[in-house]
Structures are given as C-alpha cells and as structure tokens.
Amino acid sequence: EMAGEEGKTETLVAFTRVLSGTIFSSNPSTPTQQSVSVLGPRHNPAKGHHDVTAPPGRLGVFLMMGDALVPVDGVPAGNLCAVTGLETVVSKCATLATTANCPALRSLSFQARPGLIRVAVEAEDGRDTGALDKGLKRLHASDPAVEISVKHGGERVISALGQLHLEHCLKELRDFARVPLRVSEPLIAIREGLCYSADDVTALSEESTGGGHHAVTSQRQ
C-alpha cells in the first residue's frame, strides 16, 4: 500500500515480474502506448475458458528502490516492478498481456497448508460493517496467503498460515478498515466420525503454530 501525506489518496500496488516484452505506463507522456488485458487464473483459450478484463484506468509503472517507488515510462523483461491501477480487476494474482490468445500463469502455491489458524472479526460498532468489508476485500487482494470467508450467520473469518501471519493480517486489516475491531479467540473445528480398525490406535499431536490439539482414536469393532 502507498500511504501518502494527508490529503493524498491510497492505492494498491501490484508486485510484478516482467517475463516477456516491456510493460509501459499509461501516462500520456509515455512514448509507447499499449493495450493491456488482465487474464484471470482460469483463463485458457485452448480449453475454452475465457477470463479477460481491461484495466479501468491508467496503469502506473514503478521501480522499487528500497522503500521508495520511482515512476518510469517502462520496464523491460527480466525485471521486478510495481504496477498501480489494478485494484478493481485483480484478486490476489493475475497475468498482464497484450493479447488474450495465451493461457494465464498459474497462481502462487504455498507448501504450508492454508488455514492453520482462524479467527472471527467484527466491527465494534455495527454501523462500521461496510468499512470492515472494504478492509477485508483489500486484505484479500493484497495478501496471496490469507483466506477470508463469510459464514451463514454473517460471521467473517480470517484464515492465516500461523500466529505471526495472523498478527500481520490483523494489523493490515485495521489499517485498511480504519474502524475499531473485535477479534475472537482462535476457532477450533470439532468433527467426529467412526472408523473400523483391527488394532487399537491412539495418537495425539499439537500444532506448533498454536492451531490447536488433534487426537485420533480407533477401537476394535
């Protein structure tokens, strides 16, 4: 997130690697203008799956120099850069291309299983629920590892990879929503079932990330 001085707006910045060609900004002063399409993760024209949208406004291209973003006219292949103007059309990951006749790149995958720790969040004042939802939407777009869901009763649940990741997500959410929040204790799902085994088995393990305790038992039938 780019946080400017008072009176300036905030915008979501996409972290991008240029794999082919050159990406140009959409500023009128840029010598080369290009038409860019945003390909969703399911886009694959060879299989008849089409997920193409156009950026609603101008794209800004920046070089990341330490903690600063330096605006440039274009960035060639092989470099990392930051791109603005995609916050309404990109959810987590997307592919930018000048043609829709190519498959989208695969989304990021994580070795750690998702949802190790889950908490429910709500606004302390019910009138701020709209601001909370906007903050959750921005958090979902800015963090590829977080999972956000809404239960049937309206409960908003954040699933993180661990305790440190959860603390980071809650800090980001408070910055995005800018309303007082109420956070629950970690949620633990309890599931029961019957299994048939020839031998008695008992196992107990504890999550190192604080996710909870898991026990597995079976008895001779």
From TrEMBL:
Checking Pfam families in the record gives: EFG_III (PF14492)
Q: Name one GO cellular component term.
A: chloroplast
Specify the protein name: Elongation Factor G domain-containing protein
The record's listing under SUPFAM superfamilies reads: EF-G C-terminal domain-like, Translation proteins
Q: Name one GO molecular function term.
A: GTP binding
- Annotated localization: Plastid, Chloroplast
Q: Which GO terms describe its biological process?
A: cytosolic ribosome assembly
- Record's InterPro entries? EFG_II, EFG_III/V, Transl_B-barrel_sf
Q: Tell me yes or no: is Nucleotide-binding among this UniProt entry's keywords.
A: yes
Task: Please indicate if the UniProt record lists Metal-binding as a keyword.
Answer: no
* Keyword list, A-Z: GTP-binding, Nucleotide-binding
List residues of the Elongation Factor G domain: 116-177
Q: Which domain of life is it from?
A: Eukaryota
